[in-house]
Structure formats: C-alpha cells, structure tokens
Amino acid sequence: METMIQIHQVSKTFKGSETITNVNMNVNRGEIYGFLGPNGAGKTTIMKMILNLVKPSSGEIRVFNQPVLPTSVQYLKRIGSIIEYPVFYDRLTAEANLDLHCRYVGYHSKSAIKEALEIVGLHGVGKKIIHEFSLGMKQRLGIARAIVTKPDILILDEPINGLDPIGIKDIRELLLHFKANYGTTILISSHIVSEIESVADTIGIIHQGQLLTEVKMEDIRGQHAGSLEEYFINLVHGGKRYA
C-alpha cells in the first residue's frame, strides 16, 4: 500500500522544551487516518509540520514520497487543509474567498466553487459577506476551501469545532464521500473519540508529544473486542476516566 505521508523520528523543540518526541507515523493512500489525543497533545504541531508551517527540529517528513524541505511549496497544491480556526477576508463574499484560494493554487473551475459550497451545506450564501457568517458557517466554509480543488490529501485539524450535531453529521458523511468517490487520503485530528471512531480506518494516538500507537480500527473491534474509547482510556490514562 502506498504511503502518502511518512513521518520518521520527528521531534520539535520550542524554546528549549521538546514538545514532539521521535514521532513515526504513516498515512496510506485512500484511508481516513484518525489522529486522536487530548488538547495540547501535539496534533496541530505535527499537522503544521506536514504543511511546512512549522519546521521540525529533527527527523524527516515525506509527502507524496518526496522529502518536505524548508523551501518545499509545490506539493501543497495537492493538499487541502484546515488548521485550527479558518481565517478569511471578512469583507469579501464566500465565493470571492474561494475564488482567491483557487487562483492561488492554480485551479480554475467556477463550477467547483458552487459545488463545494453545496457539499458543506452553504447553498445560497455564496454572495454573502464573511463578517455576517456565524462560527459554524465559517467552519463549513473552511472545509469548502479545503475540498474545492479536489485535493489528493485532506488535512483537517478539529474540523467539527463550532458545529452543531447536524453539522457534525454532515462532515462525517462528507469525509466518507470523498474517500469513496475520489479516493482522497484524509488525516483528521480530534479529541472527541466517538467522531474519530465513526470514520477512521487507522487510528494514531498521541499523548504529551509522543505517538503511543498506530492501530487499525478493525483490530480494535476485533482483537481488542471493544470500543475505541475503552482502548484510548486504557492506553492514555491507564483505565482511569476523566470528567
């Protein structure tokens, strides 16, 4: 199976303190990889390093089987992403924001903008100014921006933040749709176990900057004969539940 994202012995030090420690991680073509861990575990930092927004202190990251160097930029045209809270030009419309993004990456398709807005449940608001959007609408628009160019890889950092239960269900169905219909490779992070469990093929559990395990969801259901929640609690907290 082809590896789309490979992280080998990657560490990151901020101000003399190591926040990511010797992480090894493999995301395979066409799978949904659920990156699971408590807030502050290091999920966002690793995603930023994959996107070259943060440079690793040591180790190697390869995407599309090419090393990510400090000057690497071309590979980013094949990746859609949303990291933390999406930022837009607030005085422009939703359509204008997506059009600027498409121009930036060299993707030209007016119909793709309309399609992306419809897919994320923003039909009919393309002409609306961003500063009039709610938090949930901005989150949906961020996902529309990530998918509008039909990328080979989607990297989504806590994409359900700010969404109501209907929105969460919509995003879950969207991820499965892109995997099934486009063969998109998806790396999605969350601290909500149930949402990762509902979509992921492979689970990577990170805690305090260390990747504790990579495990197939089918193995958790089979060999471990339990839920991802129980597996996560036993691995991270030694079986102790936290309110």
UniProtKB/TrEMBL annotation:
Keywords (A to Z) from UniProt: ATP-binding, Nucleotide-binding, Transport
Is Heme one of the keywords?
no
Give the stretches traversing the membrane: none
Molecular function terms from GO? ATP binding; ATP hydrolysis activity
* InterPro entries for this protein: AAA+_ATPase, ABC_transporter-like_ATP-bd, ABC_transporter-like_CS, P-loop_NTPase
Gene3D superfamilies per UniProt: P-loop containing nucleotide triphosphate hydrolases
Matching SUPFAM superfamilies: P-loop containing nucleoside triphosphate hydrolases
Annotated ranges, domain ABC transporter: 5-233
The family assignment reads:
Belongs to the ABC transporter superfamily.
Q: What is this protein called?
A: ATP-binding cassette domain-containing protein
